[in-house]
Amino acid sequence: MIFNSIDYLLFFPVVVCLYFIIPKRLKNLWLLIVSYYFYMQWNMKYALLLAGSTLITYVGGLFIESLRTKGKEVPAKACLGITFGLNLFILFFFKYINFAIDNVNRLAAAIHVETEFEHFDILLPVGISFYIFQALSYSMDVYRGEVKATRNLLKYALFVSFFPQLVAGPIERSKNLLGQFDKEHKFSVENVRRGLLMMAWGLFVKMVIADNIAPTVDQVFGNYDGFSGIEIILAVMLFAVQIYGDFAGYSLIAIGSAKILDFQLMDNFKSPYCAASVSEFWKRWHISLTSWFRDYLYIPLGGNRKGIIRKHINTFIIFFVSGLWHGAAWNYIAWGALNGIFMIIEQLTANFRKKVRDRFLVDTNRFSYKFATRLTTFVLVDFTWLFFRANSIGDAFRMIMKCIYFPAPERLGGLVFLSMGMTTQVTVVVILSMILLAIVDIMQYKGIDVVSFVFSQGAWFRYVIYAGLLLGILLFGVYGNLYEQTQFIYFQF
Questions:
Q1: What does the pLDDT average to over 295-302?
Q2: Residue 8 within any structural domain of the chain
Q3: For residue range 94-104, what is the model confidence (pLDDT) as tens digits?
Q4: For the CA atoms of 155, 159, 162, 164, what is the dihedral angle to 10 degrees?
Q5: DSSP string across 210-235
Q6: Is residue 10 part of a domain?
Q7: φ, ψ at 360 (rounded to 5°)
Q8: Residue 119 catalytic?
Q9: Which of 160, 297, 352, 386 is the most exposed place for a label (fewest CB within 10 A)?
Q10: What is the domain extent for residue 284?
Q11: Is the distance from CB of 365 to CB of 313 less than 8 angstroms?
C-alpha cells in the first residue's frame, strides 16, 4: 500500500475516524495494528524483520540505561555496540550481501582465483534502511542520556513503525516523536485542513510532475546511445526535478497524514534547489538523513574538533556512507563521494573566494551574484545526480563522454523534448507545474509558510487552489492500468 493508491485513499480515513472515536488507552494499540497492516501489504514475512529490529533496540535501550545508571560505562558501550551490530547485520544481509558477493567474485577473477560464491535469493525489504536508522538513533539517544529508555514496548514499537513515515521517512528522532505517543490527541479541523493541503500538494508534485517526467528520464538513461549530449543533459536536469518531486511529495504526504492525526513530523525538504552552495543544499535536502549522519556519525568521528584534516576526512566519510546507504552499487557510492568532494572543495576555498569577492568589490546582494551561485550549485548537484540515476557507474562515465562531444545542432530547438519521447501536452503540463513548484519553493526559501499563506487568503483564492490541485491530479496525474499507482523512488532504499 502506498500513498498514491486507491487502497490508501480508503485506508487512511478509516484509520483517522476510528482513532478519534476509540478511548485514549486504545489509540496507540490501534495505530500499531494499522502500521503493521500497512507494512505487511508489501510482504507479510518482512514484518518479522521490523519486529526483530524493534525488539533488539528496545531491550538494548533498557540494558544501556541500566548499566549507565550503575556507572558501568564500558559494558553500556558494549551493549550499544551489540545493538548497532545486530541491526546493521540485518541491514547488510538483506541490502548488501549480494553486492559484496559480486565484488568478491570480481576480485577473485582479477587475481585468477577459481571460486565463485552464489547469490542469496532474497528481496530488499521496503523501508529497511529507514526504520533501522530510526531505531538506532533511539539506542544512541538512550546511551547519551538524551532520552529515557521506555518500558512500554507497545509505545516503542509504534515509534519504529508509525505508518506515515515508516517506509521512506522522515527518519524521526525519539526526542521528537516518542513523547508524542504519551499525549492526548484530539480531532482538529485546522489540522485536517493543513494536513489535507500538504497531502494534495505532495500528490501533485509526485503524480503530475515527477511521474510525467519519469518515462522520458527512463528512456534516455535506459538507451543513452540513441540520444545526443544535449538530450542526456536535459534528462539529468529532468531527473533532478523528478527525484525532488517524488521524494518531497512522499514526505509532504507523510507529514500531512501525521498532521491530521495530530502528530508533528520534522520537515524533510526546504527548497533545496534554491541553495547557494552545496553545503546549504545538504541542509535543505533529505534533512532527516543528513542530520542523522551529522549527529550519529560525523560528531562521534570527531566532527570538526580534531583539526582541519580530520574534519575533511569525516566529511568525506559521511557522504561516502550516505552513498552506500542509498544503494548497493558503485554508482551510488560515486554519487556520495562526489558530494563529499564538492563539500570539501567548498570548505577549502572559502577564504580564497572571500578574498576574490573583496578584491573585485563583488556585491553579494545583487541578483546577478545570487543567481550565479544558485546556478553553479544546481549544476554541481545535478552532475552528481547523473551517477545516482545511471544504471551503473560505467554507464555514468559513458554518458559523460557523450555530453563532452555535445549535441547535434538540429536538436537544439524546441523539438528536443519530443525527440526524447515527451508529448506536447506533457511538456506543457510539466513546464507549467515546475514553474508553480519554483514559486512555492521561492516563497518557502524566503521564510513564508505557504500553507498559512493560502489559508490567510480569501475563500475564492483557497477554493481555486484546492480545485486546481485536485483537477491537476485527476487530469494530468500518471496512472497505470485500472488506476494502478506508481512507485516512489526511495522505496528501493
A1: 91
A2: no
A3: 999 999 998 99
A4: 140
A5: IHHHHHHHHHHHHSGGGS-HHHHHHH
A6: no
A7: -100, 15
A8: no
A9: 352
A10: 191-492
A11: no
In this prediction, residues 436-462 reach a mean pLDDT of 93
Query: Whole-angstrom distance between the N-terminal and C-terminal Cα of the chain?
Result: 17
Distance (Å, rounded) from C-alpha 453 to C-alpha 39?
Answer: 35
What is the pLDDT averaged over residues 446-460? 92
List the catalytic residue out of 112, 119, 185, 326: 326
Going from the C-alpha of 258 to that of each of 11, 182, 191, 382, 408, the distances in angstroms are 14, 15, 9, 32, 50
Judge whether 243 lies within some domain. yes
Grid cell of 45 as nine digits: 514475512
Helix or strand holding residue 462 (H, E) = helix 459-476
459-480 tens-digit pLDDT: 899 999 999 999 999 988 887 6
Q: Specify the number of domains making up the chain.
A: 2
How high is the pLDDT of residue 380? Answer: 96
Q: pLDDT of 30-53, one tens digit each?
A: 999 999 999 998 888 889 999 999
Sorted by sequence, the CB contacts under 8 Å of residue 393 that are 6+ apart come out as 329, 330, 331, 334, 387
Q: Side chain identity at 275, as an amino acid letter?
A: A
Both 168 and 208 in a single domain?
A: no
C-alpha cell recorded at residue 388: 545516482
In this structure, the chain runs to a length of: 493
Check residue 413 and give its pLDDT. Answer: 46
Grid coordinates of 24: 485514549
Do 168 and 246 contact (CB within 8 A), yes or no? no
Instruction: Give the whole-angstrom CA distance, residue 215 versus residue 425.
Output: 14
Interval 118-142: pLDDT, tens: 888 888 888 899 999 999 999 999 9
- For residues 469 and 411, which has the higher predicted lDDT (pLDDT)? 469
CB 230, CB 411: distance < 8 Å: yes
482 pLDDT higher than 60 = no
Predicted structure pTM score: 0.92
The residues, any chain, with a CB within 8 Å of residue 399's CB and separated by 6 or more, are 221, 224, 232, 386, 390
Amino acid letter, residue 441: D
| CA separation for the pair 331, 396 (Å, rounded) | 8
Specify whether 261 is located in the same domain as 348.
Answer: yes
Please state, in angstroms and rounded to a whole number, the distance separating the CA atoms of residues 97 and 409: 46
13 within a domain of the structure (yes/no)? no
Question: Of 165, 186, 207, at which residue does a domain stop?
Answer: 186
d(CA 451, CA 439) in angstroms, rounded, equals 13
